[in-house]
Amino acid sequence: MLFECFCVFITTQKYFAFKSKTTNCEKFYLGWRILKKMKDLGTLQNMYTREESSRLRQAFWTTFGRYMNPVPSSGGNKVNWINYHTGVREVYFRMNADGHEASIAITLEHREAAMQELYFAQFTELKTLLHSELHEEWVWQLHDKSDPDRMISRIYKTLPDVSVYNKAHWPDMISFLKPRIIALDSFWENAKYRFEGL
Known about the structure:
The protein is α+β, with helices and mostly antiparallel strands. It folds into 2 domains: 2-41, no CATH class; 55-195, Yope Regulator, Chain: A (2-Layer Sandwich). It is built from 6 helices and 4 strands. A 4-stranded antiparallel β-sheet has the order 1-2-4-3.
């Protein structure tokens, strides 16, 4: 399949405005560079079938799960790191990996904007504690409306220019996600009591 897509890039003349001035060898080299750049940035997701894309995503999270499996929670318990359970309704620790970036976030997904504001204010009061556990500052976004179907609030960090569809990027993505989900767990061990009864 990749070979077919590669041939499309080499033979589709509209991608080469200067086609009449280039040799076949130059076209081949330029097409190869375009394909390599697409692969590096994860654009090759579109060249996989839905099933192939799903298998790669599943393989990444399986690999990540193996790295995290021996790590206990800060309380010494076994924990499902990939589907971390905060124990507080509509408060989630979410990790994502797609064709463009890896990200980790605290998401507040209450349907009512007022409830999101209340929980966001509680997190704001704990901002110093959170950032001290993370050893970095994250982006704080109240009422993100980028998804037309729902509104959420997020506290997040991203690693750009990596792709779950490029296995060469997996070590960087795992190295990005692993210490941050562990730090969130450590933060939550002390912070979760502030949200009880809200």
